[in-house]
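Encode chain A's predicted structure.
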Amino acid sequence: MLQPDAILPHGVANRGTKSAKSVDALADFGPAVVAALGAIIGTGLYFSLPFEPSGGLIFALFALGTAAAATNRFSPPGRKRLERTAGMIAIILLVASVFMLRAGAHTHAHHGRSPAIESGRAVAVEGWLEAIDRSGSGRQRLLIRLRNDPDTLAPSAIAPSGRQRVRVLGDPGAIGPGDAVMVRAVLAPPRSAAVPGGYDFAFHAGFEDIIATGFAVAPAEPGPALAQDRVERRIARLRAGLSAHIRDRMAPRPGGLAAALLTGDRAHVDPGDVEILRRSGLGHVLAISGMHMALLAGGVFFAVRLALSAATVWARRQDPAVPAAWIALVFALGYLVISGGAIPTQRAFIMTVTVLGAVILRRRALSLHTLALGVVAVLALQPQAVIMPGFQMSFSAAAALIAAARVWQDRRDTSGARGLVGQVRLFLGGLGTTSLVAGTATAGFAAFHFHRIASFGLAGNLLVMPIFSLIVMPAGVLGFVLIPLGLDGLPFAIMEAGLSGMLQLAAMVADWPGAQRLVAAASGPVLALFSTGFVLLLLLRGPSRMTGALVMGLALVIWSLAPQPNLFISETGLILARETSAIQDSETGGAMEAGSGWVVSDRRRSRFAARVFLEARGEGGPAPTRWSANCDAMGCSTPLVGLRLTRLTRLDDWQTDCQRSDLIVSDVDIPGWIEARCEAVVFDPDRLDRTGSQLIRISKGHIRSIRSARPEGQERPWRPL
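Encoded structure for chain A:
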């Protein structure tokens, strides 16, 4: 088996040798870091391709990697730069091919198992209630793990194969998490992205084994007794009981937030508080991720290490950090289980295991090498994480902080850190630097995925994070541990006070003028270019590091100058367009109102899709107005964004409509022979059902580009034809 240490010249690791000077810019590209880059490239390439990678493509990558390794082995003596480059390319290609294969196997294991569902008809769903949360509109959602015994299912129910779930909007009644449940619900397969390039629920639902979503037609009822998943059901009951206990100890607002932080139960968080935290740049505190796991495991580690260090005789003979790391791992595992084990929490746990494992093995805990091992472990278990914002933001922040810490350690002056004032100054300076570095590192990724920037996120973090780090989480963890003893009253009271103060400060920052800025969505290649520049900026040394900054700047320029679509057609036929000037209709005399606002064909249809589209365009202005169109029994027609658009309801006069229109959106299916003879671009229900919503860019009276949510001919496991 090819060993990375055999590929990379040993002398490169010795930065003080003369041979290292010629490759000093690549000093941080160690074997683990290069392997992590290969894992990112392999998984990212798999999920970004418009087609399912064939075995030939994967074999070609592997063959190229092998060829690069051979080039390294047989390179002329003294060609250290060639050896270094060939070794890096070999590792990247070999690891990329392995991880592309892993991503395909993992994807096919989770997708393609959805049963045939009769749309519009209520079916009996039987299983056990796994969790209760809330939708964006505040309605309760039930996550139900289906029974795995088909012989006991009602005839109309879904017959699962393996571990499968259903999520429905409904009233749980007296049913709690862990209990057997039966609910009649109207179901449908998980929906794909409402807007091309937007959040694809069908993609993510597959990896969570959610095979259907819908709404209940009646409150949930107790279901037949179950013998499956006994341990998981007990954990669900325990988690629900702990969440209720925490909420009972506090007022509703801080109680709901405390339950979300400690158990992952976000069903009782006030939606207004969620928006306040996002506007103030503090939305990350709601996700049980690396920060929460680090505060818990780190707090336990340092507390145990301090206690063991007090045993002077023992501490002189043994390293107290090793048992402290083992105990912290146990607490981190317990936190993973109690918090529900969501994917971000699993990712945080893997990173925690990597760091504490380095302590146990007496290696440097916080280094790019350790971080790279965490990346490889996460992508090996969850390849789909590579395109998720949580993965990109958490690891970019961690990498930037490690790089900044290295610079700070090389240049720090501890002479001013003496005394209480010096320690306070050092703490506040470190906190400010941490917030600035992490916020800057994640800003681009956050803007790409969420289309918003918290203008005063640095101020919000400087004001709130000391309270969160020093009061809220330590008190919450202490109260959590003391619940079995009944001594959790005081710690939870302290946590409640800290959360109330947090919300007040966050609300103050959120109310500042311009607290939130909206930005238009960028394409996937722009994010890939930005990410490449970010990696080069962190890993290169010396003047070569500016290459990364230039690449990131280029990505931002392309992002800002990229033309945006000005016409949107939803899957149900809604038309949403931006009108920039009044256009006179020469035949009817009708005209659009002058201005630059958005107009919509129907203010009741596809409101969610319209809102998602406007958010992706970075629009936060007034709601779209109803378009001014000339309508008759056949449909409506109007000049819009330089074209003549027609909305058809009948085909009686299709020849006239095809002659006078540039684009037609029909409520009825149009036969192929008519579409072939029509001069206009046609979107009928059949085409929209196959390809999903459409983004159209129109310039100077011509259609420049059309982008579909489900492009024809691009079959993937989460998007079957």
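Confidence is low (pLDDT under 50) at residues 1-23, 151-157, 582-595.
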